[in-house]
């Protein structure tokens, strides 16, 4: 599966609402990655697209992110990583989602992620990978399509 196959979305799905309101997304920074400018830009893009966005801040563990996602009743967890530790962190995030019986929440990965690591992330529970250079419309459409595919909008 190519990067384009995983990230390109053709539909024009609206983000306005599903049965319980707008799409809810938790934007998170895992581990010791202290660079959050991109995560804040993405959060703003998603908010401007009509989604409800919760930002966790820096230096969160996978279990902290999962518990916040459950508490906030989100549809999607979006994680931006630049640290290079994406494979073990996403494995742990997927494990924590299953442990907390919250594996119905989608995971979207973004940031600096080499294409050779995509397979490992998808196997760990990541539902979509948005490349670092993605345009705003691709980010919004990727999330909208994930939620729509489950019949929630």
Write a structural description.
The chain has 153 residues and is an alpha/beta fold. It has a single domain, classed as Cobalamin-binding domain (Rossmann fold). The protein is built from six helices and five strands, in the order H-E-H-E-H-E-H-E-H-E-H. It has helices spanning 3-7, 37-48, 62-72, 86-99, 118-123, 136-149; strands at 24-28, 52-55, 76-81, 106-111, 128-131. Helix 4 links the parallel strand 3 and strand 4 (106-111). The longest helix is centred in the middle third of the chain and has 14 residues, at 86-99. The radius of gyration is 14 Å and the shape is globular. Residues 1-18 have low confidence and may be disordered.
CATH superfamily: Cobalamin-binding domain
Tell me the series of helices and strands, N- to C-terminal: HEHEHEHEHEH
Instruction: Give average pLDDT, whole number.
Output: 87
Number of strands: 5
Helix content: 40-55%
CATH topology: Rossmann fold
In this structure, how is the largest beta sheet organized? 5 strands, parallel
Tell me what portion of residues adopts beta-strand conformation.
Answer: 15-25%
Determine and state the CATH class.
Alpha Beta
Q: What structural class do the secondary elements suggest?
A: alpha/beta
Integer tally of domains? 1
N-to-C terminal Cα separation, in Å?
27 Å
Low-confidence stretches: 1-18
How many helix segments? 6
């Amino acid at each position: 599966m190519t990067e384009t196959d995983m990230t390109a979305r053709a539909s024009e799905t609206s983000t306005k609402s599903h049965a319980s309101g707008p799409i809810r997304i938790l934007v998170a920074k895992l581990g010791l990655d202290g660079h959050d400018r991109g995560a804040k830009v993405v959060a703003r893009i998603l908010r401007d697209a009509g989604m409800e966005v919760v930002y966790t801040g820096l230096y969160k563990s996978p279990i902290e992110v999962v518990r916040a996602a459950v508490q906030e009743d989100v549809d999607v967890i979006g994680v931006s990583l630049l640290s290079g530790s994406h494979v073990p962190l996403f494995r742990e995030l997927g494990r924590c989602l299953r442990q907390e019986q919250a594996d119905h929440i989608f995971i979207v990965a973004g940031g600096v992620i080499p294409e050779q690591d995509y397979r490992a992330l998808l196997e760990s529970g990541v539902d979509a990978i948005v490349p670092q250079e993605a345009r705003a419309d691709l980010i919004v459409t990727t999330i909208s399509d994930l939620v729509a595919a489950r019949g929630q909008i």
